[in-house]
Amino acid sequence: MIDAAALGVLLLLCACILHKVRHMHLLVHTMKDDSRQQNASLFRQLEALQGLYVSLGLQRALPLTRGWAASPDFLQELAAHALDEKPACVVECSSGTSTLVLARCLQINGYGKVYSLEHDPVYARRTRRQLEMHGLASWAEVIDAPLLAQACGGKQQVWYDCSGLAAVQRIDMVVIDGPPQLTCEQARYPAGPVLFPRLSPGAAVFLDDAARPGERAALARWAGEFPELEICALPCEKGAAILRQRPFA
Ligand SMILES: C[S@@+](CC[C@H](N)C(=O)[O-])C[C@H]1O[C@@H](n2cnc3c(N)ncnc32)[C@H](O)[C@@H]1O
Q1: Ligand 1, from 52, 75, 94: best to mutate by most atoms within 8 Å of Cβ?
Q2: Residue 89: its pLDDT value, please?
Q3: How many distinct helices (H) and strands (E) make up the chain?
Q4: How confident is the model over 14-24, as a mean pLDDT?
Q5: Which is the closest atom of ligand 1 to the Cα of 67?
Q6: What pLDDT is stored for residue 33 in this prediction?
Q7: Nearest CA to 55 among 77, 28, 24, 38?
Q8: What pLDDT, on a 0 to 100 scale, did the predictor assign at position 191?
Q9: CB 219 within 8 A of CB 249
Q10: Where are the alpha helices (DSSP H) in the chain?
Q11: Domains of the chain and any CATH numbers
């Protein structure tokens, strides 16, 4: 005969075990969902990367994508736009894999130039070397653009020294993938007041990492300050957005 106390302990033990089993069951389901999502995302990136190599006819490997560099899905959006709309003047905030992709698009188009603002001399040299190795040096200029405090949006904010862009008056495509978010709050916001007034009619602006709070806040400010630009989300893994002039704006 089991006495009441022993029965109570047994029931408590069963309840604990059931609770743990239920917890593990939920955990396994969550892990299964996460892994399914990660596989789908990885497959999407591989498809985009393969698509890029085919449409750009690359003979050498691109530097790494994802992580600090742009992801293949974002690069594919940039390449599709650059090949379709053939911009003559592309300005990029930050350099790297994206610079090579854009320069190769302009080489295929037969005209145009990429001006890439880079605050870090090490990465500027790296990108220049990659451009040379790919035979793309004449299609892109990496501009040494240290981060400087400057008046912007009614206050001082650190952003690229863009004196190297003085001769660039009409910009057909802007790609914003820098400065790094740790630079300051809304690190990419100044691209709006500095570059958008120079956009040519029909120009397009691409923003990477648009899912992050700093970039979402910059987008919200741009929406208020540049109502003539329509903002659309792009289905990229890090979040991305394209801004274009509204028709008949
Ligand atoms: C988001 S990254 C720009 C990536 C570039 N658009 C590309 O596709 O490669 C922004 C800046 O981070 C710096 N950077 C790039 N790779 C880095 C790394 N592995 N570690 C630290 N900084 C890095 C560079 O100065 C670059 O301009």
Answers
A1: 94
A2: 98
A3: 6, 9
A4: 90
A5: 19
A6: 84
A7: 77
A8: 97
A9: no
A10: 4-56, 72-85, 97-109, 121-133, 191-195, 213-225
A11: 64-245 (3.40.50.150)
Q: Which two tokens stand for residue 212?
A: 């992050």
Beta bridge partners of residue 37, listed in sequence order: none
Q: What angle do CA 139, 179, 54 make, to 5 degrees?
A: 40
Atom of ligand 1 at shortest range from CA of 118: 27
**Quick one: which atom of ligand 1 is closest to the CA of 180?**
10
Give the residues surrounding ligand 1 with Cβ less than 6 Å away.
68-70, 94-98, 118-120, 123, 177-178, 180
At 107 the three-state DSSP class reads: helix
Q: Specify the pLDDT at position 249.
A: 57
Residue 185 has pLDDT above 80, yes or no: yes
CA Rg value for the chain: 24
Give the per-residue pLDDT at 248: 62
Atom of ligand 1 nearest to the CA of 175: 6
Say how many Å lie between the CA of residue 122 and the centre of ligand 1: 10
| 125, β-bridge pairs | none
Q: Which residues contact 246 (CB under 8 A, 6 or more apart)?
A: 228, 229, 230
> Please, what is the average pLDDT of the chain?
94
- Ligand 1: centre distance to CA 96 (Å): 7
Instruction: Say which residue the tokens 């990660």 belong to.
Output: 38
Residues recorded for the chain: 249
* pTM, 2 dp: 0.90
What's the token pair of residue 165? Answer: 């862009």
